[in-house]
Each structure stands twice: as structure tokens, then as C-alpha cells.
Design brief:
alpha/beta, Rossmann fold, two-stranded antiparallel ribbon, 14 helices, binds calcium ion
């Protein structure tokens, strides 16, 4: 509710604390840092993207993992998802009844049946996400129920709801308000479900973000009960409420899109011209921030830089990964090491090797790793738009037998 807290949450904290940290280092060591990096995941990834545009003079390297890019729009899109699933839920207090785990597993398998082999190997990963867009069709490739729902089909209403969720929110004129999401097999996990079915209606996440932190004027009653936040999500109007994300008043003089998103997000000239580097990594099955929104940004960044943005910024998609981690994916990777190598040794990352956290992993097991994968499977994460393609020979559990190609 505090207008200064809103701005701090958006960018003010980074703006104030980075110079303080540098001054502290200077006092302690008698000189400033040789290099400065900013990195984070989720809202921290958003901070990194904002810093790349607002405070590029402060950093030599920027790492945005699973960034909450365009966070106010993504949070509003979550309310749209909640409205879609409410239409097909058998219990509106549990949206997962509209799209159950057996049904999501069935859809994931239908995606794999069409798209898994497009990258050269049937391995439970859809690495050629772009080709899958035109190869998989929810209406054609998922059976439509002729009787009761039993996990082997979706009803026509469910297909409509799920399809709308993947296409993203629109207003009554049909104007897209956020971004599409690609079909990827990572939706059959608790992590994906928690964003779509719990956060989207809960009184600690999306409704509160939209209704209290982002819109003007704020609606403080939303947070007081789950019934209130759920009603806010279900009744959110994309013609009359959504525009409040751009409003200001005498108290809130900066709107949510201004304080939460980078000003001119594709204008990274300061970062580029001082030789700084940027790495963005995100899962294809991020349950809250659409990989397509991030991809659209990168496509525009490429255009802005005559097709040469990869000289200073690279975008890596993690097939199957959910928000920040999890999902049927090789989701352990050290993108910071790659960034440091790029900044300090001039070695641009042509691939980042990622490892699965299967059974026996010392750092914690990812339960979504399928049992037929090598528990320590490796894959190259590839700079978009290249994708990891199997070379046709050698152990398909190992990254060295894949190439990053278009
Ligand atoms: Ca595959």
C-alpha cells in the first residue's frame, strides 16, 4: 500500500543498494569491486532485466533466471487462467478439478507423441519447441470425451478452457493482453499446478499482486481471506479492471508497468556499448511467466540490434522446466559461471551444459525426472533460436552427443 515500497519492490531497492554495496566494498578493501554482477531468479530475474535497462552503468554482467518479465501482465494473466479453469472445475474452490493430473499427463503424452522426435531423439524432451507449435494441436491430437471424464480425454469445454489459457488473456475486442505459451510436456507436475490452480486465486500471490501492489487505487480487502482473493480473480474484468494497471493518482504517481518493467526493454545500448554481457534462462513449462513473452522480448532485442544482439545477450530455453526449477528437465546448470567466463575471458556461451537431478542426486532429487532417464542425464542448453539436436550416434543420455543447431 505504501507508494515508496511499491517503487522499492520494482527497482528502487536495486537503485539504492548497489551503490551502497560498492561503497562498502571500497571502505573495506580500499578499492571498489573489479567486476559487478547482478543476478536472480523469478522476481530477482525481473530485477536483473530491469537493471540491464535502468542501471547498466553499474554492472559488467546480468543473469536473469526465469525472469518475471512484465510481471503485472503475467499476474493478470494468472487471473484469466483461473477464470478459464473455473468454468470446467467440478469444485471451484479447487481449480485442479478442471484439469487433473491424469488429464495433464495425458496431454503431456500427446505433446510428446507429436513433438518429441522433432529434435532427432525420442527422449521425453521437446527441444524443438518452435517446430512443435505447428506440429501439435490440442483440438486434433487430444481425444475429446464422448462420455464421462476419465483421464483419457478432455471435454470440448476443457479444450476451450485449456486452449484459451495457452493463448493468453484477451479483452472483449480480442486484443492480446499478455503472451501465448507454447505446448511443452512439463505441465504434469505439482510445480506447474501450484501456479495455475493455487497462486492464481490465493490471497498471497496473483490476486494480491494485481489488486494491491499494481492497480490504482488498490483494493486492500483482497488479502483478508481466500474467498475474497478468489472472488477478485473470478470477477476480474479485462476491459474495466485491467487498465487500472496503468493508472496513477496523487498518492501513486508511478504506474505498475513503469516501476515493474524495464523502460524501453530492448534499448540496452548502455549495457552493450560498455561491453557488459547478459544471460537469460527460462523453462519452457514455466507455470507463471510465459517463455513466449521472454522470447518476444529477445526477438525484438535482435531486431533492435540488426540481428547481432547475441554479441552481448543470449537467451537459453530449458525444455520441460517449470518456474525456476523442477519439471521433466535437465534443470541444474551454472549460468553464472558461463556469464563470468563471457565477461572476464571473452568466451561467449555457445552452450550451457545442464544436468538432471534424478535418483541419488546429492543436491536433492527432482521427482519429475522420468524413471527411464539416466538420473544424471546431461543436455546442452542452447542459445535461442538454436536447439539441442541429437547427432545421431553416441549415448543419447550425454550432452556431448547433441549439437546446438537451428
Ligand atoms: Ca526429444
Amino acid at each position: 500500500m505504501d507508494p515508496i515500497a511499491r517503487v522499492d519492490y520494482g527497482y528502487g531497492a536495486v537503485q539504492k543498494l548497489t551503490p551502497m554495496a560498492k561503497a562498502l566494498i571500497n571502505q573495506a578493501y580500499g578499492k571498489g569491486p573489479d567486476r559487478s554482477y547482478i543476478g536472480g531468479s523469478s522476481n530477482g530475474g525481473r530485477h536483473a532485466m530491469v537493471a540491464a535497462a535502468r542501471f547498466a552503468d553499474q554492472y559488467d554482467g546480468v543473469l536473469a533466471n526465469s525472469p518475471g518479465f512484465n510481471l503485472p501482465l503475467a499476474a493478470a494473466a494468472q487471473l484469466y487462467s483461473a477464470q478459464q479453469f473455473r468454468r470446467v472445475a467440478t469444485d471451484e474452490t479447487n481449480l485442479e478439478t478442471g484439469f487433473t493430473l491424469p488429464e495433464r499427463t495425458m496431454v503431456a503424452n500427446a505433446i510428446l507423441a507429436r513433438c518429441d522426435a522433432l529434435d532427432g531423439v525420442v527422449d521425453g524432451l521437446v527441444q524443438d519447441l518452435e517446430a512443435c507449435r505447428t506440429t501439435f494441436d490440442l483440438d486434433l491430437h487430444v481425444p475429446t470425451c464422448t462420455g464421462a471424464r476419465d483421464g483419457t480425454c478432455l471435454t470440448a469445454d476443457q479444450k476451450d478452457a485449456v486452449g484459451k489459457m495457452y493463448r493468453g488473456p484477451v479483452n472483449s475486442d480480442g486484443r492480446a493482453l499478455y503472451a501465448t505459451q507454447p505446448y511443452d510436456p512439463g505441465l504434469a507436475t505439482p510445480g506447474w499446478a501450484s501456479w495455475k490452480f493455487t497462486s492464481s486465486v490465493g490471497n498471497a500471490r496473483d490476486p494480491v499482486a494485481v489488486g494491491i501492489i499494481f492497480q490504482v487505487p488498490p483494493d486492500p480487502g483482497i488479502a483478508s481471506s481466500l474467498a475474497n482473493s478468489r472472488n477478485f480473480a473470478f470477477n476480474y474484468n479485462f476491459d474495466t479492471d485491467f487498465p487500472k494497471l496503468l493508472l496513477t493518482d496523487a498518492t501513486y504517481t508511478e504506474n505498475a508497468m513503469s516501476f515493474m518493467t524495464p523502460p524501453n526493454p530492448t534499448k540496452l545500448n548502455t549495457l552493450r556499448d560498455r561491453g557488459a554481457k547478459m544471460i537469460v534462462v527460462q523453462g519452457a513449462s514455466d507455470g507463471v511467466f510465459s517463455i513466449d513473452d521472454t522470447r518476444n522480448w529477445y526477438d525484438e532485442l535482435m531486431k533492435e540490434n540488426a540481428g547481432k544482439a547475441d554479441a552481448f545477450a543470449r537467451f537459453f530455453i530449458v525444455p520441460g522446466m517449470n518456474h525456476s526449477s523442477g519439471g521433466p528437465a535437465t534443470e541444474q546448470y551454472d549460468a553464472l559461471a558461463s556469464l563470468v567466463d563471457w565477461v572476464e575471458n571473452g568466451k561467449a556461451p555457445d552452450r550451457i551444459v545442464a544436468t538432471a537431478r534424478g535418483a541419488g542426486n546429492a543436491g536433492g532429487v527432482n521427482l519429475a525426472v522420468p524413471p527411464d532417464w539416466a538420473p544424471d542425464r546431461t543436455r546442452p542448453l542452447c542459445p535461442y533460436p538454436s536447439v539441442a539436436r541429437y547427432n545421431g550416434s553416441g549415448d543419447s543420455e550425454r550432452a556431448e552427443n547433441f549439437s546446438c543447431r537451428r
